[in-house]
Amino acid sequence: MQQVTSAADRAELRISEAELAMPTDRRLILAAERLFAERGIDAVSLRAVMSAAGANVAAVHYHFGSKEALIEALIRQRSDAVATRRAALLDEVEQSGVVSARGLAEAFVLPVWEMATGEGGSWVKFIASVLGSGHPALSTVAEGFADQARRFMTLLGRAFPDLPRHTIRFRLAQAMTLTFQVLGDVHQTQDLLAISGVQLSPEQVMSELVDVVTAILAGPPSD
């Protein structure tokens, strides 16, 4: 039998009526996404996810089997969309005939920006926390990025043939961490800049981030 939550509880947990009308597995993923982003994976129990989703324990185990499987489904359900968008942008870079660090940086950052400013803001924040904490879920994040990483490495190697492969790998890892950290909490970046009197809109933060990622990818190697 499905657990019923009161209107007050749902408001506190920010569960919308539209979400409550979704299939149970989708509700569980959305609830986990939000709670993990706000509190961290280890601080959230399956019971908390169940309560936020308006479901019961049996539903969690029926659809996912375990917390680890739920985490994997949560990571993959939006990483696939990011990968598809990146692939389209990389196609444009290749078709242009000119592979530049700027074009690659835009292909790297823009899909995450679009996710962060769309329906996937909590997901971006969640991935940022996984990258920053070294949680075991990091391996699932890395697997989801593997195909994209290989393509970025090939194109970067073409644009900068003097860069060693280990340098390219390192730069991609730093670009990924920075992109999710900044876009996972744009307001925090704005607040930090405001302390020194710099006021940036979210769009300006994104533009500056593309500039920084461009610099990461294009910087000359050390001697």
Automatic annotation (TrEMBL):
Family matches, as PANTHER family: HTH-TYPE TRANSCRIPTIONAL REGULATOR RUTR (PTHR30055), TRANSCRIPTIONAL REGULATORY PROTEIN (PTHR30055:SF235)
PROSITE patterns noted in UniProt: HTH_TETR_1, HTH_TETR_2
A molecular-function term among this protein's GO annotations: DNA-binding transcription factor activity
Protein name: TetR family transcriptional regulator
Gene3D superfamilies found in the cross-reference section: Tetracycline Repressor, domain 2
Classification via SUPFAM superfamilies: Homeodomain-like, Tetracyclin repressor-like, C-terminal domain
Stored InterPro entries: DNA-bd_HTH_TetR-type_CS, Homeodomain-like_sf, HTH-type_TetR-like_transc_reg, HTH_TetR, PsrA_TetR_C, Tet_transcr_reg_TetR-rel_C_sf
Domain HTH tetR-type intervals: 22-82
DNA-binding region per Swiss-Prot/TrEMBL record: 45-64
Keywords attached to this entry: DNA-binding
